[in-house]
Specification:
The chain has about 260 residues and is of the alpha/beta class. The chain has a single domain, classed as TIM Barrel (Alpha-Beta Barrel), CATH 3.20.20. The protein has an 8-stranded parallel beta barrel, surrounded by 7 helices. β4, α5 and β5 form a beta-alpha-beta unit. α4 runs parallel beside α5.
Length: about 260
């Protein structure tokens, strides 16, 4: 099994619920099933517009799950809420109302007084702070200058291009090595699936993956416990395996 930690993002369990503004499916129930299946932590993104995860979801998750990674932007009310709940980890992400999902990492190329203040407040509340950034060396340098202990590399480019070549994977490898050499803990996530996760999980400097949509989608077909266990297995596939071999593996599992 892969030694890389697996955090499951339960946002899209709430997306299904909010489509009918009802009480099910319950993100907390899903989170507990993820833990039962061996997930190392639970991730949830409390957006400013509350499009899926709600305040009550986060409150229940924070008091129930073993490890909560709360994703948030620098919105004042969300930061205040996070400081009150003090999740184990707070990952600061960029956020735009019109986006379907987070489209890229934080822009750290210019001064960010509000971001610095957000980091300070979260750290004072006792949360471990991570910044969601693109796998760019200068951005990693800027994150280090902000004094955070961890970063999460945005894997969107890799997720969109992995079938066409290894350029994006090499970019992730170089970024992860650069960050680790600077003393940063390295996480990664966005667009990772059963078919493409193994090469990223094999990068030695990456200690944590955040995966949501693919696992939630799979759970509709086979249940949450099996979906999480299958993702664990997929993370451990030999990183040099070809896409054809990966596709065969999916067929063998009945996907």
């Amino acid at each position: 099994m892969s030694a890389t930690r697996l955090y499951i993002n339960v946002d899209h369990v709430a997306t299904v619920r909010e489509a009918r503004r009802t009480t099910e499916p319950d993100p907390l129930e899903a989170a507990l099933l993820c833990q039962e299946a061996g997930a190392d932590g639970i991730t949830a993104h409390l957006r400013e517009d509350r499009r899926h995860i709600q305040d009550n979801d986060v409150e229940r998750l924070a008091t129930t799950v073993q490890v909560l990674n709360l994703e948030l932007a620098t919105s004042a009310d969300v930061v205040a809420f996070a400081c009150r709940l003090r999740p184990y980890q707070a990952t600061v992400v960029p956020e735009r109302r019109e986006e379907i999902t987070t489209e890229g990492g934080l822009d750290l190329s210019r001064p960010h007084p509000k971001l610095r203040e957000t980091i300070r407040r979260l750290e004072e509340a006792g949360s471990r702070v991570s910044l969601f950034i693109d796998p760019d060396l200068s951005t990693i340098d800027a994150a280090k200058d902000l004094g955070v202990p961890a970063i999460e590399l945005h894997t969107g480019r890799y997720a969109n291009s992995w079938r066409q070549g290894d350029a994006a994977l090499h970019e992730l490898r170089r970024a992860a090595r650069h960050a680790a050499d600077m003393g940063l803990f390295v996480h990664a996530g966005h667009g990772l699936t059963y078919a493409n996760v193994a090469p990223v999980a094999a990068i030695p400097e990456i200690e944590e993956l955040n995966i949501g949509h693919s696992v939630v989608s799979r759970s509709v077909m086979v249940g949450m416990v099996r979906a999480v266990r299958e993702m664990r297995e997929a993370m451990s596939v030999v990183s040099g395996q070809s896409s054809a071999d990966s596709s065969k593996l999916e067929v063998d599992r009945g996907r």
